[in-house]
């Protein structure tokens, strides 16, 4: 190749790539290792959540500089919004548990590609202060680098969540759209 005949350019290119994979087999092996790690971390996260593990233990799965965000009405729903670091993850779990009680949480599928994982499913949650039950489908998005979650998103029916927590009634009522 004419492009690599220039030795200086070739050396610069090799230096910038460092230890990058040089063969298709090496690329596939690296992708498979990362994919296995991502699936393992995502599965571990849900096992801990199902087991009602201590918030600090769940937070140990996250990077200290995790990009953590749950979109929604932050002025109404205390546990959503942006969080910072493992302490933010602990705060999220504690707030979620203090305001809600899970009724049903079903994961339909977990899809993993490289360092990204997506979990799809449906949930039912009781809002303790209002007695309302939220029913929503969800998507959890994870990015895993090494063995830590570096990006975390939950996408759910934010309107139903805000409506359920923002209104007080004595009668339990299902909210879903």
UniProtKB/TrEMBL annotation:
InterPro entries referenced in this protein's UniProt entry, alphabetically: NTF2-like_dom_sf, SnoaL-like
Source species, domain of life: Bacteria
Domain SnoaL-like: 42-152
SUPFAM superfamilies, A to Z: NTF2-like
Cited Gene3D superfamilies: 3.10.450.50
Pfam families: SnoaL_2
Protein name: SnoaL-like domain-containing protein
Species this protein is from: Halomicronema hongdechloris C2206
